[in-house]
Amino acid sequence: MLSFENDYSSTACPQIVQRMTQIQDEQYPGYGQDDYCTMAAQKIRKACDDPTCDVWFLVGGTQTNQTVIDSIAPQYTGVVCPDSAHINVHEAGAIEATGHKVLPMPQQDGKIGAAQLDDYCERFTADANHAHMVRPGMVYVSQPTEYGTVYTREELAALAQVAHDHGMPLFIDGARLGYALTSDGNDANLDDIARIADVFTIGGTKVGAMFGEAVVFTRGNTPANFTALVKLHGALLAKGWLLGLQFDTLFTDDLYLKLARRANQEADRIRQALLEKGYDVAFVSQTNQIFITVTTAQAEELQSKVRLGFMEAVDADHVMLRICTSWATTDDQVDQLIALL
Amino acid sequence: MLSFENDYSSTACPQIVQRMTQIQDEQYPGYGQDDYCTMAAQKIRKACDDPTCDVWFLVGGTQTNQTVIDSIAPQYTGVVCPDSAHINVHEAGAIEATGHKVLPMPQQDGKIGAAQLDDYCERFTADANHAHMVRPGMVYVSQPTEYGTVYTREELAALAQVAHDHGMPLFIDGARLGYALTSDGNDANLDDIARIADVFTIGGTKVGAMFGEAVVFTRGNTPANFTALVKLHGALLAKGWLLGLQFDTLFTDDLYLKLARRANQEADRIRQALLEKGYDVAFVSQTNQIFITVTTAQAEELQSKVRLGFMEAVDADHVMLRICTSWATTDDQVDQLIALL
Amino acid sequence: MLSFENDYSSTACPQIVQRMTQIQDEQYPGYGQDDYCTMAAQKIRKACDDPTCDVWFLVGGTQTNQTVIDSIAPQYTGVVCPDSAHINVHEAGAIEATGHKVLPMPQQDGKIGAAQLDDYCERFTADANHAHMVRPGMVYVSQPTEYGTVYTREELAALAQVAHDHGMPLFIDGARLGYALTSDGNDANLDDIARIADVFTIGGTKVGAMFGEAVVFTRGNTPANFTALVKLHGALLAKGWLLGLQFDTLFTDDLYLKLARRANQEADRIRQALLEKGYDVAFVSQTNQIFITVTTAQAEELQSKVRLGFMEAVDADHVMLRICTSWATTDDQVDQLIALL
Amino acid sequence: MLSFENDYSSTACPQIVQRMTQIQDEQYPGYGQDDYCTMAAQKIRKACDDPTCDVWFLVGGTQTNQTVIDSIAPQYTGVVCPDSAHINVHEAGAIEATGHKVLPMPQQDGKIGAAQLDDYCERFTADANHAHMVRPGMVYVSQPTEYGTVYTREELAALAQVAHDHGMPLFIDGARLGYALTSDGNDANLDDIARIADVFTIGGTKVGAMFGEAVVFTRGNTPANFTALVKLHGALLAKGWLLGLQFDTLFTDDLYLKLARRANQEADRIRQALLEKGYDVAFVSQTNQIFITVTTAQAEELQSKVRLGFMEAVDADHVMLRICTSWATTDDQVDQLIALL
């Protein structure tokens, strides 16, 4: 059945699969000590326009968030984030499992704002009982957000400024970063992200790779003994070259951006069709996720013909669905979907 | 300076201090294996009208919540509570430090309701992604609540019913339980609490003891190897008889209730005076805590003469203060306070 | 350079790489809900001769040990194992990071014995202070062991019996299970393992797969809500079909055993050559790992020509090296190595 | 029955009990913000001859070890200690519960040596796989040791030197520190301890107090936000003045040392009698603990008349018992015991 359910339902882009077949007869050192990891890190540093970035490769998103947050946040602190954040809602308590409270703030279109963050921190500091409360210790946002919206460069810079003013690092979860970088009107490019964030990720799983998340620490922010930290979180892949090879491929000839841009363009076509047909489209999103509110009856009919993501029951009669394109979405699939709408 | 800041600013009731002086020449087995603990547990079982209750004695409130919750909640679950709950706001992340997410629900007057809880659980179960979310694993409420309000027996029974329907135990934090048991109009007596809760505490620290919280597991709910669990949470007092002696004293001749009732009566006098003088008194509370909203100027003047608890800034011009009586509050102190109002 | 450093330096067997290239145009449900996972689990159940086995697929070994142990061992318990166990020595504290003490016992040839285990448990139970000690809560052994030796079926059955007598499950870490199953003289076949263990793993990473460990729970031992447990340990792969596809391939036409047997045969050739040339070969191992003790000078010379694993300095003048074959080792590589010895 | 079972079977010295009775009518600020805590800390700083020491008061020993170690040791590290250490054997896994591996080293008479420690660390650093191993992150010893023996000043200084050379702090657990400070031949005085250790404790529970352990951080070693760290470990006593009052008392007129010295003198009398009567006394201990090896029959007879600590079965026919004096032991009790021997 036709599926726009998510952006991780296809194996990997052909370039990656092909290279996997070409390295069968070689032997590599394990745990990321291989040349592919070195080359991929070098290419990412170049794409970030910052030769000092420190790049690591992990397998999955929750694993990466758990490892980074637990390694960066002092143990007596929590991690501030939008209440819609993946770490707050969809990681089964992986952050709390490492002892850190998630400190959710009300989101708007999936985002939190710098003034809002500042107010939160100021109120914490002013509270006479704050030694008995969980101190905000780092800030987590994702780019794009859970709702496919994109922070502007100015918004991210302002968040970083407030975070730093309060002694906190800013972590930008880029599980779908490619889709933000290539969305219409985006002005926060990879080098901006690298200048603004203290640590961020470049997601592979949802943008062309089989699996893999690149973790980029900027300005010397790598935690001491990070290899051991990755290992103790169960996140050190034995055959690390599989990660290096994939990111080396994605960061050759701008493949990462090309794959993401295609997905956005396909989403744009769907979005335009939806609007033309009068659908209720939520959020001002320019990335690969589209959220529509339809009646329960409409939802049932649609879902009988195409696999879509179910978000939530809006009220007794309406539900919100997600239409998600990916680097693997074809023109033909989009034509079929539009015909169904 | 006159102080109504909290209910843990006096050492202990005279009866307890006196008995402490009378046991100096004896030697006791450690870790709660002494006769005082046995006697105190027996008296508590009798007061609960349930000979099957299993009673343990720990030192402090946060420690007790941490130990009980981590021992009762399956590791893949969180603990549902009002968002004003002590475990959510004022325990510095002690619950998350054991790996459990706190799952706050909107409170009203410090309480959550059975229908609200049921709805929360139903929505969790209905969510297609719930295997990626934190499952509600137990329910935590306090009696009285953080705002001094009291659940009715019916409200508690309904919460327990919903909790049990969803496979969760109900934990009632009774750090100030005495003040609830003796408040006007309360209809949830100790034997009701014991019939309703799966585990609850009887707070000593704030109701006459130097320190100590009795943990009562009902209906065979004691976790396996609970001594080891207490020990590994750093909560096993070497000289356990100090806890047994105190609870034995508090549960002799209804001392626990007498001490609490006195504090409530003193609070009632203050509450009446506040209302007569036109103060803005928040919450319908009949226990030993009174919350008033005053102007910043009023607050400053009051606090120059009497130590009060500061709750929060309500708006730019108003703050909420807490007036707290205790078992140690004297008529004279209350007279002085009323004269100041 | 020629390398016998380890058994995870090659990408994957050709059959797996080839199938990876054949599924590029398909879309699959995530998180292990796909048909490949279903088929692979079915084939593993058949190979285990037990239709009730419950099979899960995780990515890496440390991750798997961490997830399984933390999910199976009650929180107040530790995990008993040989002191040479991977979880005790080479997982960077991943087990303790989940709150469980590792309880190492003296090993012989990498093994512990049933009588030794029984004695350990009996002494624990008899200790007057045992409520203050870490209770043995599960037993972990690996098959083959860290030193390449193999437990007999009788030895494993005896360990399981003692474990069960003391209320503990037996976990057999089979990160290299194939090499044990196909070693000369082995009498513990996969169906025996499934009958004896409460949970065991079938390692893919070191036996032909790109990555992946199959976790097999027997006799209804799967922990409640194991999907959430996997997720909160950061171990749930989004594209689960990549794991299913690999294990489906490995368990088709006995490929798993064929790959392992080849590695053992190559190791046998090397072992024979070593013995003929008078090398000091440690442990009576019939699997793919060979441990030799050589002088420091010999070691340096060897390592200038072939990459070998360094185990430890035996004394001031001698070191122990590991020669490790894998499913990818070729006759030609072995010939080259033998010529060097 | 006569008891020499342990040194925490009596409530508290009369001076402390008396002062407890004298503060009933006062109100104090909570959580250690009171004047008694301030005064006690000041007296301890003076006794340490170091005005920069930072002093905190916690309730119990395991709680204190857990809080200090988890606050000081980086999360990717373990704590090195003698294998007989309390944290390794008798804290029910409280250290591992915070995620840190305990790294036991073979002890001699309860001690580890500087050269042994250095060798351990050197071997760790030299190990090619050390990123996969648990890094030694701090050193824990107790003074006196679990066997009542005492480190010399030189031994402690050497341990500290090696620890510092390897980037680790030295933590001295002084749960029974008084008994070491006042033992015959001891040359490590309190000011020496303060000069040598990075953090140490002064035990109250076993040396005259009802309960309480003073934690002393030297040279600015206090962890950031230690109040919150204490709170999140469940170790912050509401009525902190109870701790301050006790330590203020113990550090007035050298009471702490006087109480401990008496216990040592009583132990010396017993030790001498034991040696005269030909008992097999283990360890060269000059503190309040005496370990004797007797036949099972002798043990049974002794234990029918006096409560002693049971240590372990030495062999089929012999057991080791512990005779423990305390600040509360009377001449008469010792006379009775000697008569029984």
TrEMBL record, chains A, B, C, D:
Alphabetical list of Gene3D superfamilies matching this protein: Aspartate Aminotransferase, domain 1 (3.90.1150.10), Type I PLP-dependent aspartate aminotransferase-like (Major domain) (3.40.640.10)
Chain segments annotated as transmembrane: none
InterPro entries linked to this entry: ArAA_b-elim_lyase/Thr_aldolase (IPR001597), PyrdxlP-dep_Trfase (IPR015424), PyrdxlP-dep_Trfase_major (IPR015421), PyrdxlP-dep_Trfase_small (IPR015422)
EC nos: 4.1.2.48
Domain of life: Bacteria
Cofactor: pyridoxal 5'-phosphate
Gene Ontology MF, one: lyase activity
Catalytic class of the enzyme: lyase
Ranges in a coiled coil: none
GO biological process, one term: amino acid metabolic process
Domain Aromatic amino acid beta-eliminating lyase/threonine aldolase: 8-294
Pfam families noted in UniProt: Beta_elim_lyase
This protein's UniProt keywords: Lyase, Pyridoxal phosphate
Family stated for the protein in its record: Belongs to the threonine aldolase family.
Protein name, per record: Low-specificity L-threonine aldolase
Organism: Bifidobacterium cuniculi
